Amino acid sequence: MPKKRAATKTVHPPFQAPSDLNLLAQSPVFASTYPLAGDPTPSNPYQYGRFGNPSWQALETQIGELEEGHCVLFPSGMAAISAVLMALTQQGDTIIVPGDGYEPTLAFARQYLSKYGITVKPVPILELLDTPFDGVRLVLCENPSNPMLDQIDIELLANKVHQANCLLVVDNTVATPLGQKPLTLGADLVLASGSKALNGHSDTLMGYVTTPCSNLISEIRTWRKLSGAIPGPMEAFLVQRGLATLAMRLDTMCRNAQRIANHLNELTKPPKAIINWVRYPGLDHDPASALAQKQMQNTGFLITFEMGSEHAARRFLGACKLITEATSFGGLHSMAERRARWQPSLLSAATIRLSVGCEHVDDLLDDIDQALATLD
Ligand SMILES: *Cc1c(COP(=O)(O)O)cnc(C)c1O
Fold first, then answer.
1. Whole-angstrom Cα distance, residue 91 to residue 356?
2. CA 192 – ligand 1 centroid, Å
3. Which mutation among 106, 142, 148, 173 tests ligand 1's pocket best, with the greatest number of atoms within 8 A of CB?
4. Fewer CB atoms < 10 Å away: N or C end of the chain?
5. Any residues with CB less than 8 A from the CB of 246 and at least 6 apart, and which?
6. 144 lines ligand 1 (CB under 6 A)
7. Relative to the CA of 194, which ligand 1 atom is closest?
8. Taking each helix axis from N to C terminus, what angle separates 361-373 and 310-319, rounded to the nearest 10 degrees?
């Protein structure tokens, strides 16, 4: 059998939960415990529900194949992030976390790791390559950064991090493994929220950690077993079902996003100039465009842009009929929000992050135009 392509891997998992029936699709396996005679052996993952579950394993082998590492699932992206930060650091360590990324990551590190004597340094993505890593235990980087969509050369960063004997962890939530594979670019660990594009249906939370290193993955697995941060089998099943359509959802979302970014970009120009700037790596002049071409398989479905004022941004969001004002991204449904409502120190109040979904692009363009027309 020749090597499978990524889209095929999203449909055909390498591991199916055992069943008496010959099923074509997966079914969730519900079990809080399993028959376990005699002494437990390390080779048997099915001893107790918190230690292992076939529905986790089905999704873990599939994500692992896509990311090219061993995978451990968590009930949310934050559970995956906290697992890596708690399991792989100790008192006296210094870690670097995104200074301009997903805010709860920084909040978790500051609020909890600091209590255990770990020094937390927030660094914006564009300053990472100029930051000395001597004495640093771990660098967590989000590429592309959320919501400004800046990028860093992951391969260069990995080299620099490894020269300092330090671990590079990449948050791959925005890109998904079909958009970018940081482990193949030199990252030691990848973590992500599966609650966004990976599942894609805005109905389930999930997270995961992957790494090619068997020692690191066993530390992460032990953390899950002992902290109890486990996903439900139903959630694993739902995410696996969502993942099967990731390739075609991304195709549509990225194509739609390019059209919409082009349109918004036109509106930054006179005579209208009702938008100040647009960030989308598929726009030629975007600062992240060259890196996106180098290390990503697509230009994504997120667009970040700034309206003329906070008032205009609020009015625009309120006037959209198809695009829902909501936090999160990567779903079938297009959604947008002012990110400053969560990160006021990082962004202007007029900045909007738009997650483009799978609706017909002309309907989305019509919705944007009718909402903008209410501002005149
Ligand atoms: C949403 C998100 C997370 C957290 O994921 P949850 O599943 O909501 O816990 C982490 N990193 C990034 C970049 C995210 O967008």
1. 42
2. 7
3. 173
4. N
5. 10, 176, 178, 197, 198, 200
6. no
7. 7
8. 130
Ligand 1 and 146: CB distance under 6 A: yes
Which atom of ligand 1 sits closest to the CA of residue 329? 15
* Beta strand segments in 20-83, E: 70-74
CB atoms near residue 318 (< 10 Å): 10
Ligand 1 centroid–CA 38 distance in Å is 41
Give 217-230 pLDDT, tens digit per residue: 999 999 999 999 99
Question: How many Å apart are CA 303 and CA 234, to the nearest integer?
Answer: 32
195 Cβ inside 6 Å of ligand 1: yes
Positive or negative: CA dihedral 291, 292, 293, 295:
positive
pLDDT tens track for 178-206: 999 999 999 999 999 999 999 999 999 99
Question: 22 in helix, strand or coil?
Answer: coil
CA angle 97, 102, 105 (to 5 degrees): 50
Q: What is the pTM of this model?
A: 0.96
Report how far residue 371's alpha carbon sits from residue 325's, in angstroms, rounded to the nearest whole number.
13
| Exposure on the CB side of residue 167, measured as CA atoms within 13 A | 22
- Amino acid (one-letter) located at 289: S
The CA 80 to ligand 1 mean position distance, Å, reads: 9
Name the E strands within 124-179: 138-142, 167-171
Quote the mean pLDDT of the chain: 96
Q: Which of 78, 145, 328, 343 to mutate to test the pocket of ligand 1 (most atoms within 8 A of CB)?
A: 78
| Beta sheet of 70-74, edge-to-edge order | 70-74, 207-211, 189-193, 167-171, 138-142, 94-98, 119-123
- Look at the chain and count its residues: 376
Nearest CA to ligand 1 atom 6: 77
